[in-house]
Description:
The complex is a heterodimer.
Chain A: H1 9-34, H2 42-45, E1 47-53, H3 68-77, E2 84-88, E3 94-99, H4 104-118, E4 127-131, H5 133-161, H6 164-191, H7 198-228, H8 234-266, H9 269-305
Antiparallel strand pairs in A: 1-3, 1-4, 2-3
Helix pairs in contact in A: 1-6, 1-9, 3-4, 5-6, 5-7, 6-7, 6-9, 7-8, 7-9, 8-9
Chain B: H1 3-8, H2 12-42, E1 46-47, H3 49-52, E2 54-61, H4 72-89, E3 95-99, E4 103-109, H5 114-121, E5 127-132, H6 137-159, H7 163-182, E6 184-185, E7 194-201, E8 209-215, H8 217-230, E9 237-241, E10 244-247, E11 264-271, H9 273-287, E12 292-300, H10 302-356, E13 359-360, H11 362-391, H12 396-428, H13 431-463
Parallel strand pairs in B: 1-13
Antiparallel strand pairs in B: 2-4, 2-12, 3-4, 5-6, 5-9, 7-8, 8-11, 9-10
Helix pairs in contact in B: 2-10, 2-13, 4-9, 6-7, 10-11, 10-13, 11-12, 11-13, 12-13
Amino acid sequence: MKLKVIQQRGLWWVISGILILIGIGSMVLSWQQFQAPIRPGLDFVGGTRLQVSLDCSVPDNCDGPIDLTEVRQVLESQNLGSSSLQLLGDDRQTLSVRAGDLDVGQRSQLQQALEAQLGQFDPAAIQIDTVGPVLGQQLFTSGLLALIVAFAGITVYLSVRFQLDYALLALVALLHDLLVTLGIFSILGLTVGFEANSLFIVALLTIVGFSVNDTVVIYDRIRENLSRTPDREMNDVVDDAVNQTLARSINTTLTTTLTLASIVLFGGESLKFFALALIVGFIAGAYSSIFIASTLLAWWRSRADRPGSPAASDPPDSSEPV
Amino acid sequence: MGFDAYSRNRPSNFLWAAMGKQRLILAAVLALTIAAVVVIVQIPTQLGLDLRGGSQLTLQVQTSEQVPQISDRDLAAVQRVIENRVNGLGVSESVVQSVGQDQLLVQLPGISDPEQAERLLGGTAQLEFRSQRPGTEVALAEIKRRLQALQAQQTLLEGSDDQAAIAANQAEIASTRSALAELFEPSQLTGDDLRDAIAQPVGAASNQWMVVIEFNDEGADLFADLTRNIAGTGRSLGIFLDNVLLSDPGVDVEYAETGIVGGGAQISGNFTAETARDLEIQLRGGALPLPVEVVENRTVGATLGRDSVQRSLYAAAFGLVLVLVFMTVYYRLPGVLADLALLVYALLTWAAYNLLGVTLTLPGIAGFILSIGMAVDANVLIFERTREELRAGKTLYRAVESGFYRAFSSILDSNVTTLIACAALFWLGAGLVRGFALTLAIGVIVSMFTAVTCSRALLFFTIGMPQFRRPALFCPGLSTVNPQPTSQS
């Protein structure tokens, strides 16, 4: 069986286009709601998250799940009515409160009020996250900067190892993957309340690394095939290269997705969305390298060759790969 | 059986020579693996606070009217003040580091009362000069001796893991300190009036050091008053930072008339260069009107952390098993060999973390699990290429060889791009992000090493044994009787 990517490139481009447009639509909606393309979490806007669990070593303390209406009353009395609440754990005896930026005094007051209402908390199972608004801004800026620096570094490396147009098209495929991931998580933010934290930025950066990986493997093959048969039609060369690397592309995505799936299954609460973001990004990355990066390169090279003489089709980087 | 006819075609001398070399490499890899196991057993893995439980606080040093810009010197002084306060908490293995221009990172593992810590660490330092109350000379000497003994005890205890004893001793120190503070009278002279403190040698060629202090005009008058009262009495001037006695110099009888006037003074005694500098930094920290605010608090309870470790271990183990099974089912013999290489990879990477002192955090473990995926990728690239070459009609040996050779440029390019992303994350990211970047980067580097040495040596060694030299074990669907090898490279 041979996959003819070039023949149906219009289809692949339309699929990606639709996906990205939906994502951008969702990001616009998010922007109106949160002033950000994706629902920002504690790490970026600042605030306090307090997670407490009932202490089950105290008799009669863990009789039933925590009652959220009771919690709401406590929060109202502390003027924290706008906080968001979440019950965690199978027996719903862990409470997570996300409020604005609280100082130590306010926080311990809240904790005591909750404890008086709900029962003793386990001091060894408390989790506190407080991020000041200024620090949040700082985390966001440094994340964005890391993304841009990674982009630049990868472009330079690829234009040295390959050629500038390879590097730029790999970048296009990369942006595609990032947009698809951002779009899907923007939708998740609007629907199930997903919040982006600094781990999400980490996930995006990892997607950058892996997505380029996939594209590079195919481009590497195109380069190799071109140096052997420089006179062949670019479209055929690309088709061959994609098919020759197809098993690898699928298997690698499959194995990494397997390990990530195990994080989704067994990993802690905070890592689940992280792994999910990576799964989405890697699948988008495999898709874009097979269907988008390759067809774009074929389209670009044949377009560039056509107006000039056939001699213009210089074999890219004739040096043998090491 | 097809391998008879096949073995006749092999370039035997060449293969035997290659096998000898592979044996050497295998022996080296084996030695390395054993070393890795020893490292893992001997050097414990450092767990981050999110895994072992504890508080991590980021303190923002704020500028004030008097100090609009924070210099490195200021930050060092504030850091010393914070270290003093952290020591007062009695948490073993606590860490205070400066981050960037104006932030301090405080790590308090296993802390039981995060509220107390947060209250204690924030705020401006309180430096006070107090005169000793009359008639307390004997008591002072006695309490100082007791405090010294308790502190020596504390240093000993911190080496052990007896948290209860440490806390008890810490409480004892705290009560002794307040008893000590009781022996001194509060005064108006505070850090606000201290202009500077400088450590310097007593003479040009002296090993003796002293600390020169300088007050502003208002402070100079107060200081003259204070020193006049105690000069020649045998009582001393107590210098307190956050209610802890730093130094208690006496004042010579010659100043009994006027006190020390002019706003300058020197504290001398048995100072070495080191202790003098330490006092200088503490005095300056106390003099700086720089409020410190807690801008980030990440506290994880001890059981929650243990829970995360357990879950991550399950995730890592399960992910690894899935990958091992997939490789065996899909790639047959080479898959099994790659699995072996993968186990070696996991051990080497773990040892590298321990050896380099990498602190494992939750995202760090995610980075490790992910790097397992990347390690597999290198093998997948190689095996796919080998199959292709086999289908093109090459001999087994040549196919494996060119599989490695041709896949290498892809492996290199793809790993370098990942390393570039890691470098960006490590360089620009903070805390958790850096941990992830570091573990992933180490993983990627080790995986390149194991793919090109370990997998390779294992494969060549195995095809050196006739019973394994069947192309069908490498590429299902390929006829066992190989077509005559063509002469292409």
